[in-house]
Predict the 3D structure of the following.
Amino acid sequence: MKIVALGSKVFVTGLRLAGIEGLKVDSSAEALETLSKLIKDKEVGLILLSDDISKSIRSKLNEIRSKYSTPLIYEVPAPGSKKEKFEYRDMLKQILGV
Amino acid sequence: MSVSFGRKFLPTKIELIRIKRSLSVARSVYKILEDKREVLLKRLDELIEQAGAAREELWGPLLDAYRALFDSYLKLGSLTVESVAATIPKSTEVSLTLKRIIDVTVPALQFNEKSLNLGYGFADTNSALDEAFFAMRRVLPAILKAAEIENSIFRLASELERTQRLLNALEFIIIPQYEEAVRSITSTLDEREREDFVRLKKIKKVLELRKSRSGV
């Protein structure tokens, strides 16, 4: 199955070097639109989102992720982003609605 | 076996037996689901630890890869880098298999990279691009691993939510309803028994009275 990268030009180019198909998206809305198309593609196994565009649509992403088991969606730190701790427990709380 | 909710239960002995049986089934299901929730929580806890570690591991190599990428951008210009990137075959693929943990399907990613030849000429590139190329590839397995763990968390969490919902339904609706039914049926039956008893006494009295009258 394919891996598809969604993100800025630099992000996509970087992953393109690793032999991954990339689609350049400029905004979160655009990313979401592309994402909803990719979900239906049976050939796509993993979608890598650059986290600078995914941050603002995280709740939407979580919704998609709990609805569809494939493809997997993963947020990769974007080029030039600061290191931050990813709060899985917060994420869990959000999914469980606690 | 079915008791439709919202309707009155027939106050009969057979219905009482049925409901009692359903009640004990509901209680044992509740216990099983409780155990399941415990296991899920424990597993989630482990996975969260792992996910944090995987992200941590990913960070260093990814940073290196980005640095190499920026370096090649600087040295070659965006036009060259991007056009070279566009010519690299999309050879990297994953195979996605599903495995089951405690009745939940979680994804498992397998990395199958076909070949690692540089898909570009050396004429208008330099070592900076090569470095970016290799660094990007090196970081991929870590990304896949982290993605796998993170998505497992999602799957387990939504299962946990489902289990919790079932538990709540059992605890607050189904089991109380059965208990209420048992209570109301038992009291109706008891009441009926007392009535019968009284009626019997009365009849006996009347019969005795009649007997003594006719005897006189």
